[in-house]
Amino acid sequence: MEAAKEAVNCLTLPAIQELKGLPNPPADCLLVTKAVLILLKGEKKNHAWPNAQKMMANPKVFVEQVKSFPGENIDEWKLKDVEPILAYEGFTYENMVKKSQAASFLANWVINIVKFNKIYKQVKPLMESAEAADKLANEKLEELRVVLEKVRVIVEKVDGLKR
User: What ranges do the domains of the chain cover?
Assistant: First the structure.
């Protein structure tokens, strides 16, 4: 998640302006915007450049939407739709930076937000199990405290009777 945040934090408004202002962007940039349209907007069909430009119409709002994207909850269909894009060997920060700075940061975000989602889905059940175990342990410790207090009171009574 930190890698995805770092990629987004590098996005600048001028870079987004530059990207959205391209009249005919390179094919690799179109792959990036397609992936972002799928993940961010839930776009299933219209991945055309004018729709991507519309998505980035207000660069400040667009960057905020990317920053606040909930990587924990990506629909399975979105992950499936971006899978072929991520499989393309040119879908890397290093390749995209040659074409557009904004596209390179967005590609990095897509790559890392999908990785985060996969890791989160594996770790979430473990975190939930740990939380449940911790809650149970706290409940049992409280029960033990109550029992120990009762034992202490009984021991005091027994000691009083012995005296």
Answer: 2-120
Q: Model-level pTM? A: 0.73
Q: Is the dihedral of CA 56, 36, 85, 51 positive or negative?
A: negative
CATH class as words, domain 2-120: mainly alpha
Q: Which residues contact 114 (CB under 8 A, 6 or more apart)?
A: 39, 74, 79, 82, 86
Q: What is the pLDDT of residue 125?
A: 62
Q: How confident is the model at residue 140 (pLDDT cuts 50, 70, 90)?
A: confident
The contacts of residue 25 (CB under 8 Å, 6+ apart) are 19, 33, 49, 99, 100, 103
Cβ–Cβ under 8 Å, residues 42 and 75: yes
